[in-house]
Amino acid sequence: MKLLVRFNRVNIIATVIVLLLSGLCYYFTIRYVLLNQLDDDLKVEEQEILDYIKTNNSLPNPSSYKDQEVSFQQNDGQPAKRTFSSSTVFSKEEKEDITSRQILFPVTVAGKNYTVAISKSQEATEDLIQLILLLTLAIVIVLLAVLFIINRFLLNKLWRPFDTTLKELKQFNLSNNQHLKLEASTINEFSDLNEAVTVMSNRVNQDYLALKTFTENASHEMQTPLAIINSKLDVLIQDETITEFQMQQLQGIYDALDRLSNLNQSLLLLTKIENNQFNERENIQLDQLIKEKLLQFDELIDSKKLHIITNLQETSLQYNKQLLDILVSNLLGNAIRYNKEEGDISIILDPALLSVSNTSEIPALDGAKVFQRFYRHAGTKQDGNGLGLSIVKQICDMASYSIVYGYTDHQHRFSVHF
What we know:
Blueprint: H1 3-56, E1 63-64, E2 68-75, E3 83-91, E4 96-109, E5 112-121, H2 123-158, H3 160-171, H4 188-237, H5 244-274, E6 282-285, H6 286-296, H7 298-303, E7 307-312, E8 316-319, H8 321-337, E9 344-350, E10 353-359, H9 388-398, E11 402-408, E12 411-417
Parallel strand pairs: 7-9
Antiparallel strand pairs: 1-2, 2-5, 3-4, 4-5, 6-8, 9-10, 10-12, 11-12
Helix pairs in contact: 1-2, 4-5, 5-9, 6-8, 8-9
């Protein structure tokens, strides 16, 4: 859930709760004030009756008006207590039940006790309260609508610099050597965020370029001493005076040097891929490329007596030929190198998929680590450098392909989805 959506939801819910509670308090406060005012009017009527009795020593005549009624009732026992109350009575004039406010108080006239009842219609008060509630409800609805509009449009506009910064960070790619294009903002927090992100991205770019340059230079500079060592070994091996033991030692050095040279070339290749140095693209017939690679691996296939099963559909891709050649070579090379004697290799190709599977005595690989650099299963021989599948993954990422590893029926399967 987005921060703005959560903020709007919490803000509106909190506003509704506060307004409802405030509305209830407002309702009871207004009702209390209006009823007190009505009670004050009844007290005035009470005082007028008491003054009349005091002056005339008799009860005034009962009266009944549209909104007021005065009645007297003689009490034989104890006089009633003075009380205020609200009640619903049937109005003959209105022909409906109406709410009225009533005061009961005792009086004594000529030695007799009476209870005086004065009632005033409460309908006007209730109508006023309802009108106030309706106005309050209308104000609440308008306020909520204004809050919604402000949160929906104004806050969206205020948060736009943050959204732009987040979008730029998602698209940020070190290999493209790009700089972030952040939207200027008058809000201090967003300006500080943009400044911090810009400083961080520039520092990361500088560190990445320094590391990339170091890797490329180191790999390149290693080529010359490796070539010199290799040529010197060639001279020593051709010397007829060396013993068989010395020959074995030189051969071990020669093999180690060959692995070091292959490792250096692989690291240099990874650096070039990350530096986007393979920008040339052309139309490639992938089915023909696979057939050519199978011919190149023909001797290795025959030496292990492997069975090749192919289902190649005509497939054309627009990509760098050198990288696609490396991808196919690494997949086929691994399928041959780690296969068992008289094993099987299955190659399936269609316009959407390249699948290479092979039998092997090695159990399933770790799917989470299989494309990591220098990953090697404990059961494999140490004749590779552990970078083949990393290079394949890097090529697929650069081309926006996806590669998936699977292990079923004692077969390792690598599937490239175009």
